[in-house]
Amino acid sequence: MEFRLLGKVEATARGRPVALGRPMDRLALAALLLAPGGSLTPGELAGRLWEEPPETAPDLVRDYLKKLRRHLNAAVPGAGALLPPHDGGYRMLVPRNRVDVHRFLDSADQAQRRVADEPARAAELYRAALSEWPSDASGPWGVEPLAGLPGAWAETERTALRNRHREALTTCAEIEIRAGGHEQRLIPELDRLLRAEPLDERVAGLLMHALVRAGRRGDALDVYGRTRRLLLDQLGQDPGPVLALMHRRVLNDRTLNDPPHAPLGAPMSATTRDHEDDQPGDESGHELAGTVARLVAEASAAGETDPSRTRSSGTRSSGPRSSGTVLIGTLRERFKQDTPAESALAWLVREPSSAAALAALENVLLAAIERDAGFAAELRALTTAPAPVRDERGSVSIQAESINKSNVFTSEVHIDGDFVIN
Fold first, then answer.
1. Which of 32, 129, 331, 378 has the fewest Cβ atoms nearer than 10 Å?
2. Quick one: what percent of the chain has pLDDT higher than 90?
3. Residue 192 belongs to what domain range?
């Protein structure tokens, strides 16, 4: 027997619909199918059926469940055993892969774990997750999850499922935009999502990016204008720095001919590094922002996010993780009093495998790099400085010509060569 909750609460047996009774019967079924750990106490089930359970709640709960067993048995003899009698808790004995919500959530969770290392596979899993939603049940523009069910619990679950759907779609869109070639599918999906939630700047930025990639620059500018007007009218504020940066890039025609972004987590090529300093324009800034964001993600994934711990150890380790740790400290200091930038950094530190978090920090960094050449030089020095060499005594040795790379050492340092300290 299969159960669907993304849309109207329905069940099918051998391809035929199963009558599930009135809304309260279906609400009880949905509550059990979504129960954390698979079971609910009588009090927990009553709390999902009513905000303030009546005195007769125990009798009413038993009545609803008795009717559910009867409906299940009518469809398939013996299927009432899926809802065993009360033994201190109620539960539905249904495998997760027989419930559309659980298939969606499980596929989305698998996708999230692969975003950084296997973006193509992550996109496939996100698409499998999103396919569980009927075309008319992917947002408030049509039939919603748990459609027709009354009560505060159902509304809370409905909102949570909508949010998970939006997160899955937007993260999948970020991956597919990076890969290129998916714009014709993404544009209507993102347009529908933005019309449902018109103040969502992340969705607006993704839609603009997809439109530009499809050669529809004018439509992308229209999306920005519409979003900006709504933000001003309803919130009294202009778009944030990430969406404003996207607008500026579209105005300057910078993204029309951009190659697809490098895969998430991919290192910069040797060619890019060799010529980065020779190309101070937008492409160089974009590469630098991507490298910094990647190093921050790598350090965060390794749990190395506290620069003070590196200092207190008395040594300076080398490699991308230590660079990322130093960058995290640098960015925290830089982004003080800049709430959007602080939030983007904190998000990636908290969720280093999130493509959305990686893209958010990358965009914030790009805006800062474009505004401040000195900050760009500081970041470039931190990401390209050579690793120190330790002598036989364990002390750090560096060459004088490397001093200008802005390396910071907290242990004893021996310097060979002539240099001038200003």
1. 378
2. 44
3. 100-139+154-251
